[in-house]
């Protein structure tokens, strides 16, 4: 029965008109996107990719790499249009002025990222269209959009496994290993129906074994009641109100109240550190003396981490500031991985040399990047690697730390991402960074999901999306450095490149014999 159904599906795919084939590919891409947060339907990601693998194998024999490219482009467009639909939210903050740009942003981003899928599918076809080439090319495609240009690794196929026990294996090979597992399960699913079945059955059995092993090998949650306590604060300022002069005092006073509140448990010690989110202070650091005094008074001798902006000459910086026990600025970090077109315009400073200064960060039009990753000293708590918003989605930004930190400290303003998918996907990637490195993460959002994440990537405690509040949470200790922390993406990239080269050589040898 399964054979006949698979044969009918295969015959139907092979007989589709080119236009209908592209429509089907787009729909299958959208199906695969349902594995992303907040839906988390990861089996559908595997099913969608399995059918896309079938389309690639069955429909491009005659059309070659060009036909494969268009299938990959259509599939990627459907995948990214659904998974990244939150990209329209920033344009709806001031809908009268910017709303018209929302559909162009979604279409442009989806098609732009789909080019990586198109290139990957074309490589698969050139390498003979077999399973190893499909897995290797998808991994290399995901790596390319992580590192090329400014990088945008959001919604990788492997992210569908973050909320599962497979997350444990990110400590060995990062998000690219998770993407390889998804792609391997997808091709095995198709071949278990159509053959060769032995290799497919072995692959699916290994996939299931990794799931079970992930459950057993994930370290148990830390339960040390003597661990230091941190206070995370979420003011819940909607983006369209955040900089409203009448609303600014409301959100600031809310954070002051949360800072000065007594411990949640009667008789418990005060927190060792209080953390406010990104751009939480409504004045520039350069002019914030009286404001910082108010914050220090509310903290009553407890150090406070603050997100705020500062200016140096004409340049603006998105910064993280640590106020010490005396209310003085003890450490400063400037965000260095900026959002293109959101925080700066690419080549804006270059255009100023030609008399166009409207996009130049050095003239105060947009943010300027900081010098790079650095650690901040939090006293008895240890060393923290600060990350501001978007920087938390880049594994290379975490690995760029000059030394191994004791924790990851991420502040963000997820109000830009709306209320549906963006904040949950951003949280999922924070969990992934913790699991990759074996480090706890303190994640504090203006609104979104503020959370304490343990070194295994589990959310220990959180403040839900759309709610104002604070939590006193205990900081778990870091784990030993993981394999991924030591080696990064190099091993999985080398293996994928090796498999793809072997697939090319095998295909050429087979073609020569024919």
UniProtKB/TrEMBL annotation:
The protein's Enzyme Commission number: 2.3.1.269
Subcellular location: Cell membrane
Entries under InterPro entries matching the protein: Apolipo_AcylTrfase (IPR004563), C-N_Hydrolase (IPR003010), C-N_Hydrolase_sf (IPR036526), LNT_N (IPR045378)
Keyword match Ribonucleoprotein: no
Residue ranges annotated for the CN hydrolase domain, each copy included: 233-477
Transmembrane regions: 39-56, 68-88, 100-124, 131-154, 166-191, 198-217, 483-505
Primary localisation category: membrane
An annotated Gene Ontology molecular function: N-acyltransferase activity
Bilayer topology: Multi-pass membrane protein
Keyword set, alphabetical order: Acyltransferase, Cell membrane, Lipoprotein, Membrane, Transferase, Transmembrane, Transmembrane helix
Keyword Protease: no
Any one annotated GO CC term: plasma membrane
Pfam families in alphabetical order: CN_hydrolase, LNT_N
Pathway(s) annotated for this protein in UniProt: Protein modification; lipoprotein biosynthesis (N-acyl transfer)
Family matches, as PROSITE patterns: CN_HYDROLASE
GO terms (BP aspect): lipoprotein biosynthetic process
Family that this chain belongs to: Belongs to the CN hydrolase family. Apolipoprotein N-acyltransferase subfamily.
Function per UniProt: Catalyzes the phospholipid dependent N-acylation of the N-terminal cysteine of apolipoprotein, the last step in lipoprotein maturation.
Full protein name: Apolipoprotein N-acyltransferase
Originating species: Roseovarius halotolerans
Protein encoded by which gene: lnt_1
